[in-house]
Amino acid sequence: MRKNLVLLLGSLLIALPAMAQDSFLADKHVTKSVNCTACHETQAPKQGAEVSSGKCVQCHGTLENLAAKTKDKKLDPDPHYNHLVNTDCQECHRGHE
């Protein structure tokens, strides 16, 4: 019984952030007039095309800058301020998923 409860709570913790998102990251970029070429360097990227973190930091800044911006949200731990060096943005942020 206890094991099932732990599994259920763990599943909810994983699923809730995904359920809270009302659109894909790419859709949020489009609403801010950021077109495909800004990230993909082509207007019609292939299915599953990835974007380098170098592209992300050109607009969003470094992980350190993002950690400072999200500090007031009191995320524990703050995913932008971590011990992982060179973590790829796409590990957490998936543009079309």
Automatic annotation (TrEMBL):
Q: What is its main location?
A: other
Q: Transmembrane helix among the record's keywords?
A: no
Cofactor(s) for this protein?
heme c
| UniProt keyword terms in alphabetical order | Electron transport, Heme, Iron, Metal-binding, Signal, Transport
Quote the InterPro entries the UniProt record gives.
Answer: Multihaem_cyt_sf, Tetrahaem_cytochrome
Q: Quick check: keyword Iron-sulfur in the entry?
A: no
The cellular component terms of Gene Ontology attached to this UniProt record, alphabetical and capped at eight, are: cell envelope
Q: Where is the signal peptide?
A: 1-20
**Pfam families for this protein:** Cytochrom_c3_2
**Chain ranges of the Tetrahaem cytochrome domain:** 29-97
Subcellular compartments: Cell envelope
- Molecular-function GO terms, alphabetical: metal ion binding
Q: What is this protein called?
A: Tetrahaem cytochrome domain-containing protein
